[in-house]
Amino acid sequence: MAPSGPGSIRRRCRRVLYWIPVVFISLLLGWSYYAYAVQLCIVVCLMAYHLLFAMFVWSYWKTIFTLPMNPSKEFHLSYAEKDLLEREPRGEAHQEVLRRAAKDLPIYTRTMSGAIRYCDRCQLIKPDRCHHCSVCDKCILKMDHHCPWVNNCVGFSNYKFFLLFLAYSLLYCLFIAATDLQYFIRFWTNGLPDTQAKFHIMFLFFAAAMFSVSLSSLFGYHCWLVSKNKSTLEAFRSPVFRHGTDKNGFSLGFSKNMRQVFGDEKKYWLLPIFSSLGDGCSFPTCLVNQDPEQPSTPAGLNSTAKNPENHQFPAKPLRESQSHLLTDSQSWTESSTNPGKGKAGMSNPALTMENET
Ligand SMILES: [Zn+2]
Ligand SMILES: [Zn+2]
């Protein structure tokens, strides 16, 4: 039998409470359907309304129920390494164990102090852009934030769904507000028959207008984040690379940043179907693409022997699945071949620093 102490009961209660925002949005959505499709019932608009409603529900559902991805096995420490880590005191020896374990992993980011990023809780080396979520109690790949409105972590596996959820919910609210406006005006000028529909029409407009304002600012912010290839967490605290902090370290230019989230095939862009590029564990950076030191492990390791400053953090190549992002499609490498489009990369101060070695 499972232990059922006060701790586990409290945990179960908390887990139930986390669903309240989702239930709230679902009820609101259900009511808006009733108010619009049953009470307001503008026949010509109903087709467009149902399309938006379906896309809203579909993307919301996918954002809620897509499990966040956790780091793959290779990022977990072996029993021997865990044992060694437990015996070593914190500090340089501790780091040495982690450095050896991270030797062949495609990681470029470090902690503020320049150490390997390690999660004590999950006992793993954190891949780039991965963070530990205290609510989920797990390390989440490319974690963006934990969203109470979907009771799920928004990260690599569902970020595209989250963006579409924001977009469709905004369109849904704007559509309702726009088509309900004339009835709303008639409500205040006493031009509406005195039925129960009157109040639905009034509240429908209020709710749609209110949510339109908050959703448009949130959606605008996330569009900016995608265009800069940043997560919400990275917008608050810039990632730290071997050479130091770089707020645009993962940015590959607008079009590539967009495609990293939405994928290469345009037909999937507007549908909540997973099409993001990569594996979530490693991410191409313009620094890697341009850095002659990076392409092969032996060269990277040799140069670290010559340069004591680099010794602590040997350069590693991108794994196969990731390097295709930079090399497979021509456009991924255009920044190094096309001088016009490469300007963004060349003017990146971080790139200059990377080439100094
Ligand atoms: Zn963790
Ligand atoms: Zn979470």
UniProtKB/TrEMBL annotation:
Keywords: Acyltransferase, Membrane, Transferase, Transmembrane, Transmembrane helix. It is a multi-pass membrane protein. The keyword Hydrolase does not apply. The keyword Transmembrane helix applies. Residues 288-307, 323-339 have a biased composition (Polar residues). GO terms for cellular component: endoplasmic reticulum membrane; Golgi apparatus; plasma membrane; postsynaptic recycling endosome; recycling endosome membrane. It catalyses: L-cysteinyl-[protein] + hexadecanoyl-CoA = S-hexadecanoyl-L-cysteinyl-[protein] + CoA. It is found in: Membrane. Residues 116-237 form the Palmitoyltransferase DHHC domain. Residues 288-357 are annotated as: Disordered. Its EC number is 2.3.1.225. The chain crosses the membrane at residues 16-34, 40-61, 161-179, 199-221. One of its GO terms (biological process) is regulation of cell-cell adhesion. The DHHC domain is required for palmitoyltransferase activity. Belongs to the DHHC palmitoyltransferase family. This is Palmitoyltransferase. It comes from Marmota marmota marmota. The lineage of its organism: Eukaryota, Metazoa, Chordata, Craniata, Vertebrata.
